[in-house]
């Protein structure tokens, strides 16, 4: 099933996702931190730490958005990070943050399509994605592209929402995610569809072992899934 933000429109998922993020870009960071109570910052730090032993020099951040994951990856002291996203609005916010932090020489944020990467084969030591694979129009194609541009023995780290399974957290989380989050998102961002799309897209995403199998299907090995915060999110680690 293809989940799209604006069901009344006829555009592709890719087009609708770009439109959605353009619309909410100015409030995206605030809502991200507010709605997650700031836990999303901890998740990104934990995910990036998994790359520390690899010491990657060149990193690709797919669906970089406003650049938070790329900026966090600077803790690995890489030579360069390239971030790509389909939303120009999100990239503009990200570029402002990069300039404010004086990281223009290390981080390059570009408009780009995760399913048609404009990079050579075997180009990056690591590929990272934070809350982005769920928005791919064609998940298999996007994962194949990640595999293609990654160097042999390179590592991919994916941070994505998942579905808690334990009672009573499963029930409380489900209520918050489907009833409270969309209302707050609508009030702050003026786009109700964006924050109704979020829980719906998580519901239909093959999280946990399902996503591990998707990674294996395109050639990744040593695939690991680590759940965080009672299973609200998962961190996936895989090698080429």
What does the model show?
- The chain is of the alpha/beta class and 240 residues long.
- The protein is built from eight helices and seven strands; from the N terminus they run H-H-E-H-E-H-E-E-H-E-H-H-H-E-E.
- The protein has one domain: Vaccinia Virus protein VP39 (Rossmann fold, 3-Layer(aba) Sandwich).
- 44% of the residues lie in helices and 21% in strands.
- The two termini are 28 Å apart.
- The protein has a seven-stranded mixed beta sheet with strand order 3-2-1-4-5-7-6, with helices on both faces.
- The model has no long low-confidence stretch (mean pLDDT 93).
Number of domains: 1
SSE string = HHEHEHEEHEHHHEE
Count of DSSP H/I helices: 8
Could you say which structural class the secondary elements and strand pairing correspond to? alpha/beta
Count of strand segments: 7
Question: Main beta sheet, described?
Answer: 7 strands, mixed
For the record, what CATH class applies?
Alpha Beta
Helix residue percentage: 40-55%
Shape: globular
Strand order in the sheet with the most strands: 3-2-1-4-5-7-6
Radius of gyration: 17 Å
CATH architecture: 3-Layer(aba) Sandwich
Distance between the termini: 28 Å
Q: Which topology does CATH recognise?
A: Rossmann fold
Extract low-pLDDT stretches: none
Determine the mean pLDDT: 93
Strand content: 15-25%
| Oligomerization status of the protein chains | single chain
The CATH homologous superfamily is called: Vaccinia Virus protein VP39
């Amino acid at each position: 099933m293809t989940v799209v933000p604006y069901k009344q429109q006829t555009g592709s998922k890719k087009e609708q996702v770009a439109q959605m993020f353009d619309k909410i870009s100015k409030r995206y960071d605030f809502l991200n931190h507010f709605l997650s109570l700031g836990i999303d910052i901890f998740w990104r730090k934990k995910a990036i730490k998994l790359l520390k032993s690899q010491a990657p020099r060149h990193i690709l951040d797919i669906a970089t958005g406003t650049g938070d994951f790329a900026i966090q990856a600077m803790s690995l002291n890489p030579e360069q990070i390239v971030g790509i996203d389909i939303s120009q609005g999100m990239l503009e916010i990200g570029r402002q943050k990069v300039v404010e932090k004086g990281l223009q020489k290390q981080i390059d944020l570009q408009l780009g399509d995760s399913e048609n990467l404009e990079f050579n084969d075997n180009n990056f030591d690591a590929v990272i994605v934070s809350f982005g694979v769920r928005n791919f129009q064609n998940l298999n194609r996007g994962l194949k592209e990640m595999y293609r541009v990654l160097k042999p023995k390179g590592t991919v780290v994916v941070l994505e929402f998942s579905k808690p399974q334990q009672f009573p957290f499963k029930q409380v989380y489900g209520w918050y995610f489907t009833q409270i989050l969309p209302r707050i998102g609508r009030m702050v961002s003026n786009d109700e569809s964006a924050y109704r799309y979020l829980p719906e897209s998580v519901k239909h995403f093959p999280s946990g072992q399902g996503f591990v199998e998707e990674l294996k299907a395109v050639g990744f090995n040593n695939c690991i899934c680590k759940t965080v915060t009672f299973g609200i999110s998962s961190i996936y680690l895989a090698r080429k």
